[in-house]
Design brief:
Bound molecules: nicotinamide-adenine-dinucleotide, ligand 0WE
Number of domains: 1
Number of helices: 7
Radius of gyration: 18 Å
CATH architecture: 3-Layer(aba) Sandwich
CATH superfamily: NAD(P)-binding Rossmann-like Domain
Length: 259
């Protein structure tokens, strides 16, 4: 008996087996959910389909979230084989690499618009297109980061995008709440994924994190997956518009204890 028996989930943002989206997919599936995937075209055949097949999943559709047409096409394909969607997972973000280093004040108009479009607006677009398939008890979930709330060196325009994402979660929760649809974010501590590799200073921050976080450990995609099960299931039936920190308590610390 699983917490998600008889539910289905559509997960956006698997790039490889280190992706947070993949950790969430496995956790939802372990609780009985049927999972389908959408990722950018270039990753589908080499990366995503083999992973999907490894857990017996056949729904794998391309979608660049900057395209309204591609977003519509994914949900149209889903509707061909499903009457409804119980769980929608948004686990993707993008900013230009040059906007993730140096001064935030140097962010270009184009770089700002790109980061906000891919990383924040896409949640609104996915929620709107999914809406006809969502029903009472459905759950929408996205991924955020502490840089939304406090300044994190080099996170720059992504911090602004995550602030917009968390605010979008609240506005969507109010719009969809009367229909029994919940919308929440998980703000995860740093995890070594493709999106984190090659980030200036990520390694140093990753090391320091486990020394400062109350639980003294780094965060894994499995940790995020378990909290995703809670937010996707009826265990959280009265929770919406929230940002749940899955960060070992890092965000509650003001002045860290010297060990
Ligand atoms: P990842 O690289 O595995 O996943 C990022 C995904 O975004 C990739 O699958 C990529 O293809 C997708 N993406 C980028 N542009 C896209 C577009 N235009 N259309 C569709 N998909 C697009 O990295 P991850 O760390 O698993 O990131 C997943 C989410 O978790 C992101 O929202 C990220 O901001 C968030 N997050 C990551 C960390 C961390 O430390 N890794 C911490 C907190 C939150
Ligand atoms: O949200 C993220 C990373 C998102 C991301 C990563 C990249 C790398 C490659 C968005 N766009 C790009 N564009 C690229 O070209 N995280 C929470 C991980 C992360 O990124 C940081 C961090 C942390 C943590 C950037 C600076 C400082 C800390």
């Amino acid at each position: 008996m699983g917490l998600l028996d008889g539910r289905n989930a559509l997960i956006f943002g698997v790039a490889n087996d280190h992706s947070i989206a993949w950790g969430i997919a496995r956790a939802l599936q372990a609780e009985g959910a049927e999972v389908g995937f959408s990722s950018v075209e270039s990753l589908i055949e080499r990366r995503v389909r083999p992973l999907a097949e490894s857990i017996g999943s056949t729904f794998v559709e391309p979608c660049d979230v900057q395209s309204d047409e591609q977003i519509r096409a994914v949900f149209a394909r889903w509707a061909e084989t499903h009457d409804s969607l119980d769980i929608l997972v948004h686990a993707l973000a993008f900013a230009r690499r040059e906007d993730l280093e140096g001064g935030f004040v140097e962010t270009s108009r184009e770089g700002f618009a790109l980061a906000l479009d891919v990383s924040a607006y896409s949640l609104v677009a996915l929620a709107r297109e999914a809406r006809p398939l969502l029903r009472r008890g459905s759950s929408i979930l996205t991924l955020s980061y502490y840089g939304a709330e406090k300044v994190v060196a080099n996170y720059n325009v992504m911090g602004v995008a995550k602030a917009a994402l968390e605010a979008s979660v609240r506005y969507l929760a109010v719009d969809l709440g009367p229909d029994g649809i919940r919308v929440n974010a998980i703000s995860a501590g740093p995890i070594r994924t493709l999106a984190a590799s090659g980030i200036a200073g990520f390694k140093r921050m990753y090391g320091g994190f486990a020394e400062v976080a109350p639980l003294r450990a780094n965060i894994t995609p499995e940790d995020v997956g378990r909290s995703a099960v809670y937010l996707a299931s009826d265990l959280s039936n009265a929770v919406t518009g929230e940002t749940l920190y899955v960060d070992g308590g890092f965000n509650i610390v003001g002045v860290p204890t010297a060990d």
